């Protein structure tokens, strides 16, 4: 058994986690005459305020969070939430235009509308796919991958609220380990975009129920997790790098914090795209 600190996004039952003990900050509890050498006297007794948020930014943040309520419904799976139709802003359109031609990672703070950029890209890629199907038989899908089950429903509802595509929500609680290949194929035939946890997507590839050349867009939510043995990283190493370049899907990564505890921004970009 190893000892360590637990991440909010990951839990390993083989590890004994030791809770962090907050350390009080006594940095300014010194003689005011000393502090006055380094600080303006009017700021010595100042108290920190909460980060200010302008009205427009607050609107985006509230819309993206969707007022999610994790009390499950009768089916025991899907959390209830209020969806909101979002209006793209200029910077979102600029990033969308960049994503149409390149594989990119969007690094924006929480509440800045990263998901809406992905929705714009999904709609564009589905439009291209519909045109391509006029001249080729093989159908391709968009996949939106998340790190945690609640995000399956949160992100799928954002997509559904902002387009008329057929969105499938898939997580382990649906007993997908026992689904047959035929059931998966039928689901893929009906869907335009599938929102699922990354582990399920990796399992689909490993079992041969899906090939990466059947995917036209691959979105990684919270892509700063793409390190070591995380499913995000294994998908890229085991399948994306082995896929013919002309058949590789477009990659779109989203994160509010590209700095992983044991990696840097360069590593995140290399792992994802």
Descriptive overview:
- A six-stranded parallel beta sheet has the order 5-10-9-6-8-7.
- Helices cover 36% and strands 16% of the residues.
- The protein is globular.
- The longest helix has 19 residues, at 114-132.
- With 273 residues, it is of the alpha/beta class.
- Strand 9, helix 8 (231-240) and strand 10 form a beta-alpha-beta unit.
Global geometry? globular
Estimated structural class? alpha/beta
Low-pLDDT runs: 1-8, 63-76, 261-266
Percent of residues in beta strands: 15-25%
Number of strands: 10
In short:
36% of the residues lie in helices and 16% in strands. It is α/β, with parallel strands linked by helices and 273 residues long.
Question: What is this structure's SSE topology?
Answer:
Elements (H helix, E strand, L loop, with lengths): L1 E3 L10 E3 L14 H4 L19 H11 L3 E4 L6 E2 L9 H12 L2 E4 L6 H19 L8 E6 L2 H13 L5 E4 L10 H10 L2 E5 H10 L7 E6 L10 H10 L9 E6 L9 H8 L1
Parallel strand pairs: 1-2, 5-10, 6-8, 6-9, 7-8, 9-10
Antiparallel strand pairs: 3-4
Helix pairs in contact: 3-4, 7-8
List keywords for this structure.
273 residues; single chain; globular; 9 helices; six-stranded parallel sheet; disordered N terminus; 16% strand; 36% helix; alpha/beta
């Amino acid at each position: 058994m190893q000892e360590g600190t637990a991440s909010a996004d990951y839990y390993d039952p083989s590890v004994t986690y030791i809770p962090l003990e907050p350390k009080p900050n006594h940095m300014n509890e010194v003689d005011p005459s000393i502090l006055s050498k380094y600080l303006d006297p009017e700021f010595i007794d100042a108290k920190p305020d909460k980060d200010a948020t302008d009205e427009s930014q607050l609107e985006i943040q509230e819309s993206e969070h969707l007022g999610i309520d994790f009390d499950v419904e009768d089916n025991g799976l899907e959390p209830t939430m209020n969806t909101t139709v979002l209006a793209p802003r200029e910077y979102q359109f600029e990033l969308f235009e960049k994503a149409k031609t390149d594989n990119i990672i969007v690094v924006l703070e929480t509440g800045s509308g990263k998901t809406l950029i992905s929705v714009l890209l999904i709609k564009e890629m589905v439009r291209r796919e519909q045109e391509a199907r006029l001249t080729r038989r093989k159908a391709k899908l968009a996949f939106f991958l998340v790190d945690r089950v609640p995000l399956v429903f949160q992100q799928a509802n954002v997509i559904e609220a902002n387009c008329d595509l057929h969105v499938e929500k898939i997580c382990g609680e649906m007993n997908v380990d026992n689904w047959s290949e035929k059931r998966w194929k039928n689901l893929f035939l009906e869907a335009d975009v599938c929102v699922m946890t990354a582990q399920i997507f990796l399992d689909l590839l490993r079992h041969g129920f899906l090939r990466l050349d059947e995917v036209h867009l691959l979105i990684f939510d919270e892509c700063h997790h793409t390190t070591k043995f995380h499913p995000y990283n294994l998908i890229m190493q085991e399948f994306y790098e082995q896929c013919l370049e002309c058949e590789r899907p477009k990659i779109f990564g989203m994160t509010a914090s590209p700095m992983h505890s044991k990696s840097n921004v360069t590593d995140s970009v290399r792992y994802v795209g």
